[in-house]
Specification:
8 helices; two-stranded antiparallel sheet
Length: about 270
Amino acid sequence: MPMDTPQADAQVITRLVASKYYLLASIVTLYFDHVLTFGQEVKSLWRRPASVPGVLFLLNRYYPLLVYAVVLLAFKYFPFAAPLVSEAILGLIVVLRLFALYGRNFMILSLLVPAYITQLVLGGWASVAIVRDAGLPQGSGCIVTVPTELVYRFAWLWASQVVFDTMVFGLTASRIIFLRKWGLKMPLTTLFLRDGLIYFAVMFSAKLLNFLLFWSTVTSNLVTLNWAFNNIITIIMVNRLVLNLREEGSRSTVISNNEPDHSHALSRTSAFVV
């Protein structure tokens, strides 16, 4: 139902301005981090032969820049299908990283791939529920909303993402602990554990914010408010994780043949993922 009272119009304008500034701040964060890490990217990526992981990384680096550039230029519409493509690339990078960390054990794929596909399917299921707020005057911007009867789709989406990130952290931590128990104490193992902890902490915080917005908001307008930020912070975290691994992999020495066989997982990770 259109809102035509002065108080309602003021509320619409307030929500419009707040949501636009929040989106703008999120996008600026993405571009700022890209500038900060561009030198590291040139050093650790452009001077190496092309590879499938490298192509995935570049897609994750530059596809969002193009998408959010369109958002900045238009700023009246946010393409909710765009984060789904980005999240598909992000998830694939994370799955490949763990696949290599476990010495290319296909059991890891049997655990991660269903969770990875589930969150993508739920993301598409949730995104088709988003509609333009009918209370917003034409030509003044875009505030999206979700019909009350379809809001539950986002609860399933956020839950699936929490499950996937928890699995990633648990598998990373358990593998590194196992390798260190076998006496493999090299910078790359420490880096995997450190970045895994940071990745999990940031991702869990972002998903927790989604849940808080979901359960605390009195309207469905705020359900999707954090989607862009959630996508952007995930892009930044995965980019930094891969760049750090590449940089450390370049410095790491070749593992001696008299190390336990389990130690080859890290060298294979450097070759296969980074």
